[in-house]
Amino acid sequence: MEKEGDGRCRGCFFRRCRSRAVNRRLRGSRREGAEHRDASFEFRRLERTDRTTTRTDPDTGTTHTTYNDFGDVTSTTDALNQTLSYDYTLPAGYADALGRKTSQWQGAVTTGTKLASWTYDTLSKGQLTSSSRWVGISEYKTAVIGYNSLYQPAGTTTTIPAAEGNLAGTYQFSATYNLDGTLNSQTLPTTGDLVPENLNYSYDSATGHAYSLKTDYGGTTKQIVLSTQYTSYGEPAITTFADSTTAPFAQQSLTYEPGTRRLAEAKTLKST
Question: Do 84 and 105 form a contact (C-beta atoms < 8 A)?
Fold first, then answer.
């Protein structure tokens, strides 16, 4: 068994440690032994819960966190005494067994200011149905239309409240997928003076990497990404853009550091 520097065995918080160093430590007066047992019990209790209730940071100050009986965070209070509270209650009236948040509040739950809310399971068990951001009484909502057999969203709607004026309304997005789960196509809705647009993706048959992109905008079909090349690590290396297959093109070239694979250089080249 691996020992730490003071002789304690790692991972023995819940079973009796038989190391010689611990036995020596337990020797001594009855009072010292009792103090050791009390301290040991407290240390084990904290290890079992493993919940940080107070954290002090030199930049952000002290943050206090509370939990429910399931270990879910129910509130956080920062150094400015600003409290964010979280609720996990489902519409049926009981707490979500998966620990998923159903609402977020500034201040106390139900009496504070609602900031966000979530619903689940109505379309597919275990999956998100909708999420909302709240500004006062205005709700900005994204809802899933349905899921396919791989639990991928077949479409979503985004609803903008009347407070946004001409932007207000409901916008629908849809998507189809290939058998391997990769994105096949997307449909973007009418927005302002922009007409609907269909995007179609193709992939390299050998590697499965995205290779090209075709768009159908207002009835006009164009190939706007002609090709994509990758490094041996699967990183994009050279992407060729154009307005069509016969138009002048531009290329974006990316190079990476050999050891860390961090981006080292980005170049944009145009055809002559």
Answer: yes
Q: Which residues of 108-134 are buried (b: 16+ CB within 10 A; e: fewer)?
A: ebeeeebbebbbbeebbeeebebbbeb
Give the pairing type, strands 210-217 and 220-230: antiparallel
Neighbours of 239 (CB within 10 A): 21
Sign of CA dihedral 192, 194, 198, 202: negative
Select from 19, 26, 14 the least CA-distant residue to 2: 19
Q: Give the span between the Cα atoms of 72 and 76, in whole angstroms.
A: 11
pTM more than 0.85: no
Identify the sign of the CA torsion 57, 63, 67, 73. negative
Provide block-wise average pLDDT over 10 residues at a time, the chain (272 residues): 43 38 40 41 41 88 93 95 97 93 97 97 96 97 96 97 95 96 96 93 95 94 95 96 84 96 96 80
Residues sharing a CB contact under 8 Å with residue 238, sequence separation 6 or more, in sequence order: 227, 228, 229, 251, 252, 253, 254
- Report how far apart, in Å, the C-alpha atoms of 248 and of each of 96, 228, 241 are: 56, 16, 9
